[in-house]
Queue: 4 jobs
Job 1
Amino acid sequence: MLENEQLSIKRSPIVYINMKDPRFMKYYYRMKTVELITGNELNGSSPPDIFIGSYGYPNVYISPMVPPILGDTSILSMPEMWRGIDIPKIIEYRSLLVRGMYKSNIYNVEKGKIEELIRDFALAEKNVDADISFAKKPEMKIVLDENSQPFGPSAPIKDIEVGNIRSDKKIEAAYSDVDMNAKEAILELYEKGEPVSKIQKALSAGLLGIGKKRKFVPTRWSITAVDDTISKEKINNAKNYDTIDSIQIYENVALDNRWIILMVPGAWSYELIEAWYPNTTWNMGGNEISIYSSFEFFEGRKSYAEIGGCYYAARLAVSELFEKVKKQATTVILRETHPGYTLPVGVWNVREHVREALEKEPKRFDSLNEAFLYIKTKLDIPISKWIENSRILKELLMQRRLF
């Protein structure tokens, strides 16, 4: 079913739902996945992927994620591969992953069959063939979570058997080092070229950290923890670099989101401002545009960002650019989310599309006024509204007036 890394699912000839709405698409594709499951049994190739829940913490559901298809399914759980793919296709991919649920304590990383399999899935270099039997037929549930990727039907696991698993040598080395703390392991894996998504799974599965302190980490927490850890390290390094020498704007448009990354010469400070139109994911019942922001100055943040995981995902992308060019800057990211983005697909959307923007050649300007005039041509919301909801833009304008 995998052809050139593009999944194809046989569709019913008649569909009685609004396929323009991603929420209905998600329901539709999950139904198609259920149709591929025979009774309470499933045979398939995990990408590999896992999901650790947060409900009931510290007693949480730990879950291997397995699609009802065999072959190379890696694209199902590698957001680094999803650039240029639209929301319906992402929903199609993720809805194939059936979640086998098993309740465990977060400290049971070395106890029990399912716990060991979660570890093995996170260690695996390539697809893991698995046979799962469920306590009942997997069911569909619609869950909105901006931090983690969506997934397909779920059901409690009755039993699971897997084929031979080939370990990723880099992750296996970090797992074997029981004296290395989680921060060191995360940074070492990143420097060795491991994709952020794989490091996040390793942390979630309890593979990283001091041996006796290892534990399962809920998926949504591990995603933010890895983004935060890597970006904080890079930013601390960047604070010793010279500043950029001109005002720069990077931009991108993807998944009904418009991105503007404004960089101004000066010491490190950072802000992410998100504007959600009515009939978008986090403003479904609203009649007006909702605008949220989180920021930090040179000293950094001491509290969790109000915006959540997106803040740290975008900050990681910015910190990677600073390391590459050996510069620092005052940075403000403007995210304008338009109708069409009605289902969250995960903070990878922020990380990868800000990364994509920063890989392009920036526009350069001699003044903030010129930069604001350019932004006016790219975003629908007036620049005055962005300034009104921004701490750092106000600071920049204040400095300009004082100068």
Job 2
Amino acid sequence: MSTNLSPAKRGWSVGLTAMAGFFLLMAGGFQLLQGLAALIHGDFFVVVQNNTYSLNVTGWGWIHLIIGIIGIITGFALLAGQTWARVVGIVLAVLSAIANFMFLPYYPVWSILIIVLDIAVIWALTVYERDSEF
């Protein structure tokens, strides 16, 4: 264990990592619910005509379901202190934000909520101090 960090910096680092883990769990859960809603009850979402990112609602359901499951697994791994989960969390949050940006015409409020959580996860995982342990 490296002792380069002051206790305050170490506390912030651990706290931000835990926050990112919880936010990733929440965003993954929301993605999972969004995917299940699209797969089970596809007419819940309003399909707009002439959409630039037109994709079948069932296709969006599978995308959100897969991102949600991986997000939940990664969130638990972050809380367990797994190093690989930091990189996967950042990549997954970026992919999730892109997918939800493209899903905005179908369900804007939900998509914006998930994008905000993704941005918080990216920020928390990128300000992490490398020398600290979780």
Job 3
Amino acid sequence: MESVCPEVDYQKFLAEGRLMIQRSRSSGRHVFYPRVAEPVTGARDLEWVEACGRGTVYSTTVVRQKAPTPSYNVALIDLDEGVRMISCVEGIEPDAVRIGMPVQARIVFRNDAPLLVFEPA
């Protein structure tokens, strides 16, 4: 799948239940957020590869809501492939998410749209 809008491709993969990220054929480096060229070299040889979905919490914060709306966490996740993405960790209390915590990606649907979240591994 190749188009001029990598974000659209990424969302299509998520809708299919697949976590795909890009990798430069020439450097072997993985890239996230989807783009048309590798940030370091400018190489336009990016290909889509399936990510393992394993990662580690790099940073986290809790967004506190006024009751009865529940609070939630926002986390930076380092995938095993070496890219960092922003998401949330579900399945535990927002305050229980810790830096260094191993997590696993999961694709959920909210408002009929695919969303990548993580849960404790």
Job 4
Amino acid sequence: MTDNNPFDGAALNNSVFERASMINSKFSGVDLSNSFFYAVLTNVKFNDCKMNRVEYDDVDMSNAVFNNINLQNTKFMNVNMENVDISNANLDGMKIDGVLVTDLLDRYYSA
């Protein structure tokens, strides 16, 4: 550990942080596997993160920006997608209510 950063290389397995303020914190090379967050994450940036098998429940992602994201084999259930804008996306195999989106787009553009 360095003198100016007591958390550099720290082992904090099974730690519980309650009512902690971590404003402007930076997590780099941190393994948060099997962690739970009941937190305010406003204006947070996730960059180069591995988030496989992450579960989001009762989450407000209003005005979020997703760029260069791999959502392969992801499921969205009970989702409000009002005014969502999707562009430059690979939609192969994507279904909405069991209907292939590519089929819908083909019908729309051929009409």
